[in-house]
Amino acid sequence: MRHRSRYVRGLVLALVTVLALTLIPHNASAKSLAIWDTLQGTNPKGYVLLLRHALAPGSGDPANFKLNDCSTQRNLSDQGRADAKDIGIWLKSKQVKIHRVESSRWCRAKETAKLMAISNVRLNKNLDSLFNAADPVKHPQTAAIRKQIVNHRNQDGLLVMVGHFVNIGTIVGSGVDSGEGVLVKANAKGEIKIVGSSPAP
Fold this sequence. Notes:
Elements (H helix, E strand, L loop, with lengths): L1 H32 L1 H5 L7 E6 L25 H17 L3 E6 L3 H10 L4 E3 L16 H12 L6 E6 L1 H8 L8 E6 L5 E7 L3
Parallel strand pairs: 1-4, 2-3, 2-4
Antiparallel strand pairs: 1-5, 5-6
Helix pairs in contact: 3-4
């Protein structure tokens, strides 16, 4: 009887642990998404969404990479293209006024931005992949994007910047999944703060 009681207690403890581990990420995710309820239907000031391109299998780029030749690059998969459209649908559902959409010149980022279909896309070389950079943190592109985020602090509308894993991680200090975004805003001191996220497809 004692062994059975011990078994039941152990089973209950295991179930509680599994349940806790299941709920913690969900609650954290729900909290990071809650900001959109506040922004919905508004013309927000100072917000920037740093969005990683949708699914493009592999990592880095082929050795024969050419900027203006998509056949030499990693590109979105069919799933990635569908995800990019879903990201656009999700953002449209929030009815947040878009200031502008900017993209890396890499084909997978450009295609993501265009398939989202939320605004015309402006190419920004400072969003180009820093995968091969010796020190992404000290790279001039990183400094330029930081400055742009700070300068947007008093601008109306959401600035969407579609880029790459390394670039976004360098700005916010953590990685993002394909198609996932980090919502940031600069304060009066010029510090960039994470205020939320957009869901990975």
